[in-house]
Amino acid sequence: MPKATNRGPQGRAKLTDVARAAGVSPATVSRVLNNPKIVRPTIQAKVRRAIVSLGFTPDAAARALKSRRTRTIGAVVPMLGVAIFADGIGALQGRLRDHGYTLLIANSEYDSEKELQEISVLLDRGVDGVVLVGDAFAPCVRTLARRHEASLVTTYVCKSRHRIPAVGIDNAEVMYRMTQYLIGLGHREFGIINDAAKRNDRTQARCNGVLRALKEGGMHLGGSRIVKVTYSVANGRAGLRKLMDSDPEITAVVCTSDALAVGALAESKALGLLVPSDLSITGFDDIEISAHTDPPLTTVNVPALDIGRLAADHVVASIAGLPVPMSSRLPARMVIRASCAAPRKA
């Protein structure tokens, strides 16, 4: 181990000390710290062991001043407690770590003012890029990012009207296909339980997909058959109760999230309705519990892990000045389970 006299001020280990202890060049240590993907795993392991044994701490502030980069990325999500966002953030963080970046996370609670505030704080803190959810953010966000020379990427949608890279699914298209599936089973009496959050452009797109399929099939949904509730299992229950109280002829209920659908399944039992013989119910997200409800829930699988990883690749590439596609559409797969069947009244 290097002697203390070879260390920096206050006995701090220097990069050259780490290089000597690991038996590599200082340039290799720098690459492990800043761009580990280009260094062999065995060499990375040697360098990291030396870092730990010497208690070496990179001077991030000095490196940031020199490169004008902090190697940090910010992410703003609507709700931290939603499984689909948690999965995506985990994948985003893991891939960013592979690229040598640190992730800072903020929660907007589906509030546009809070979202703008959190983005502003992250940019003021010097993040090199920001990963967003959806495309309903304020137009001034793009101006703010340009002013801070930061890159933007949005997720869970495949196109952005703000002309920034988007990584996600076509929410309207897959819900259109789900509705066509239900129509093919013989359903003609539909209800929708939708997320009431004004800033949730993904669930609104899903609702639009349902309405498009119904219109093409010659069906019209009255206002009483579209119930808007805030995101929770309990509100899914309340939404189903409201639908069936207003129109008991409904045979298929399309929910714009699995949480709402799980609540709808629970309330159907309380109302004495058998799923799927009396009522078919579908969700969206394919969270873990959806395969274990009674009956198992028909839903849409959102590839959150792939979205998170690809968003990380795109924001890092954008920071490096590399070309990034404006639209990356990932497949959203319908998962057909036992909560749907032909209606008795068909």
Strand order of the largest sheet: 2-1-3-4-5-11
What is the count of helical runs?
12
**Helix share bin:** 40-55%
- Rg calculated over all Cα atoms: 25 Å
CATH superfamily of the largest domain: Response regulator
Low-confidence stretches: 1-9
Order of helices and strands: HHHHEHEHEHEEHEHEHEHEEHEE
The overall pLDDT average reads: 91
Shape: elongated
Number of strands: 12
Give the N-terminus to C-terminus distance in angstroms.
80 Å
Q: CATH topology of the largest domain, what is it called?
A: Rossmann fold
SS-based class: alpha/beta
By CATH, the architecture of the largest domain is named 3-Layer(aba) Sandwich
Lay out the secondary structure.
Elements: H1 15-22, H2 26-34, H3 41-54, H4 60-67, E1 72-77, H5 83-98, E2 102-107, H6 112-124, E3 129-133, H7 140-147, E4 151-155, E5 166-168, H8 171-185, E6 190-195, H9 201-216, E7 226-229, H10 233-246, E8 252-255, H11 258-270, E9 280-282, E10 299-301, H12 304-319, E11 327-329, E12 333-335
Parallel strand pairs: 1-2, 1-3, 3-4, 4-5, 5-11, 6-7, 6-8, 8-9
Antiparallel strand pairs: 10-12
